[in-house]
Write a structure and sequence with these properties.
Layout lengths: L4 H24 L11 E10 L2 E14 L2 E4 H7 L4 E12 L5 E12 L4 E10 L2 E10 L2 E12 L17
Antiparallel strand pairs: 1-2, 1-8, 2-3, 3-4, 4-5, 5-6, 6-7, 7-8
Amino acid sequence: MVKTPQTSDVAYFMLCLALFLLILSIFSFKDGLDPLEARCFNISLSETRNGVVAKKVIMDKIEFKNGKLRISYIQKKYMFKWIKYRILKDSIFTDSTDTQVRQLELSAIATDNLNQTIYLDFVTCEWDLDGSIKITKNDRLKHYYDVAGREKGGKPKKHRRRTRLPNL
C-alpha cells in the first residue's frame, strides 16, 4: 500500500492531537488536589469513659499531608503515625450571611499488628473541625475521644476596602 501525503498528514495530526490531549489531562488533575493538603488544626481531645467526659482536656494538633493525617498525641500513645484518610463528602453551601462555606466529611481507619484499630470521623467547615476518635482492641472499645478544633492561624481576616477622602 502506497502512502500518500494526505494520509501521513492525517496520521501526524492525530498523533499531535493525542499528545495534546494527554498533556492537557495531566495538567487538569492539579485541580483535583486534596483540599486539606498542608493544613494544620489546633485541636482539643476530651476522652469519654462510660458516658462521662473526663475533666482533663488534651490540647494537640492535627496535620494533613499527602492524603494522610497525623495527630501527635495518638502517635505518642498508640503508635499510629500517618493515617490515610478518605473524603466522604465535599460540599459547598451558602449560609445565612450569603457566604459560601465549604464542608468536608472525612474518615480514616487503621489497624496495627497488635489488632488495635483506630476509627477517625471528622467534619470540617471552613476553618473549624469537629469529630470523634474511637480506638478498639480485638473489636472492643478501649478509648473514645471527642475532637474539636480550629485551623492554626485562626479565622482568616476579611480585607476591608479603604475609601480615601478627596483632597480639598
